Amino acid sequence: xxxxxxxxxxxxAGASALAFSALTxxxxxxxxxxxxxxxxxxxxxxxxxxxxxxxxGADVPSLEPTADAPFSAAxxxxxxxxxxxLGSTAAYGVTGCFQHNGDxxxxxxxxxxxxxxxxxxxxxxxxxxxxxxxxxxxxxxxxCNKDYRETGNVRLRALRYDGDTGKFYQPESWSGWIPVDGKx
Length: 184
Prior knowledge:
Layout: H1 2-25, E1 39-40, E2 47-50, H2 73-79, E3 85-91, E4 94-99, E5 104-109, E6 116-123, E7 130-134, E8 140-145, E9 153-162, E10 167-174, E11 178-179
């Protein structure tokens, strides 16, 4: 009897801890207003790269939120043209995506708040992390053209950047691992 009571208490404690962590660890959605941004400490060796405006006439991704329809990354990779972003993530004021053809990182700024959009890029093979900054203003895209190992994967991190102080801010959002070659 005592053992059953301990199991029940353990399950209840675990469920409570899980619920509390879900409530406190969830970042704000891309369209939610944020009153008090929290500073994010970046590693000292993270390289900051200022993004460039896309070439005139370039096919740019949409800054509009995607529909709530189920998304299959593998199906999107098979059906998408070569210049399509396959992996994406969004947080308050930032949309980021990765274009496997040309290894282009896109950083979109979606909020007029005096900060820049920042999209960090991390690899699964040890290359130093870099952050693509969009200083072009609200409702714009900036691109950072990189050369990643074709057998590797990248992961994106969307967050805000204050160019005056050089600091990064939450809320933030991470993508899943995206194959550099575009083949899921």
